[in-house]
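[worker-b] picked up task from shared queue
[worker-b] task type: protein-ligand structure
[worker-b] ligand name resolved to NAP; SMILES cross-checked against name lookup, match
[worker-b] sequence length check passed
[worker-b] input payload:
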Amino acid sequence: MKIIVSVDKNWAIGYKGNLLQRVPEDMKQFKEKTWGKVVVMGRLTFESLPKKEPLPNRTNIILTRDKDYSVDNAIVCNSIEEVFKTTKFCNAEDIFIIGGEKIYKMFLPYCSKAYITKFHKEYPADTFFPNLDENKNWRLIEKSEEKKYQDLSFEYNTYENLNKI
Ligand SMILES: NC(=O)c1ccc[n+]([C@@H]2O[C@H](COP(=O)([O-])OP(=O)(O)OC[C@H]3O[C@@H](n4cnc5c(N)ncnc54)[C@H](OP(=O)(O)O)[C@@H]3O)[C@@H](O)[C@H]2O)c1
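[worker-b] inference finished, payload out:
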């Protein structure tokens, strides 16, 4: 399993149910990395998607404790165990954890890699990703050059889990 996320300087990821910033190039790389793969998300992240529709050409798994929740063209799971059962026959490298905070925290120990887009800016925020620079299980293995979008600079960082469950 792999994580894909964008974070600010403080490892913040969201505010009032939305992303902190939409950067077209980052959206494009998210699409490319997850295209044709399995994406796992929390119910709140699903409901924050622009059209409240599953992401096209991906197997969408939505986590909720609501047993009656259903979405066309998506698989609904009621627990982490159910996600593991559902994805048992998938190549683990093809499963992307796409948020939000609760789902990232829950799956972090099971992920081999994290693709982190780091914005060099602080935003007002109410949801966060664990700081991998302070987590001894995770090591930064790749860092892109600095990129620009309008007045924002950002970079793509890849971390690997040295202690995957
Ligand atoms: N920067 C990024 O890359 C990025 C990516 C994704 C999301 N985000 C942001 O993150 C924020 C949302 O994060 P969040 O933590 O509030 O919500 P979330 O993780 O998207 O969803 C939380 C929901 O998942 C379900 N859930 C959680 N644990 C569960 C479990 N053990 N079993 C079954 N279901 C479970 C619950 O749904 P029910 O309440 O229905 O039971 C819970 O309310 C938004 O602001 C979003 O924009 C940022």
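[worker-b] attaching auto-annotations
[worker-b] The chain has one domain: 2-161.
[worker-b] releasing lock
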